[in-house]
Write a structure and sequence with these properties.
Length: 116
């Protein structure tokens, strides 16, 4: 037990293995509800997320993602759950608005969520 902690007291604990980051462009917020589009088996699925801190072009996702998902970053207004999406290589944007595979990098293009 940390020396500042007392039995029966609550403490907030930051566990970096449980935090995901996404590029800010991949997140849509409407009426206080934030969502991303997860790409699974070639189709978009809207997923509600809870956001935390921002750092440069990244935003912390505290709940809603496992951290290994591929997220759409562009053309979000054209996506809906079930819409077919074709992904390209990192930074290679395509007509569907998603690209994938830039895990852990802060450059543009759809990417997998990252754990920090």
């Amino acid at each position: 037990m940390p020396r500042d902690a007392e039995p029966g007291r609550e403490a907030l604990v930051y566990d970096p293995s449980r935090v995901s980051w996404a590029v800010a462009e991949a997140v849509s917020t409407l009426a206080g509800v934030s969502t991303v589009y997860v790409i699974e088996a070639g189709k978009a699925r809207q997923q509600q997320v809870t956001l935390g801190a921002r750092q440069d072009k990244l935003v912390e996702v505290t709940t809603g993602l496992k951290g290994d998902e591929t997220l759409a970053e562009t053309n979000l207004s054209q996506l809906a759950t079930g819409v077919a999406v074709r992904t390209g290589s990192a930074g290679e944007e395509n007509a569907s608005g998603a690209s994938g595979g830039a895990e852990g990098r802060g450059d543009r293009g759809g990417r997998r969520g990252t754990r920090q």
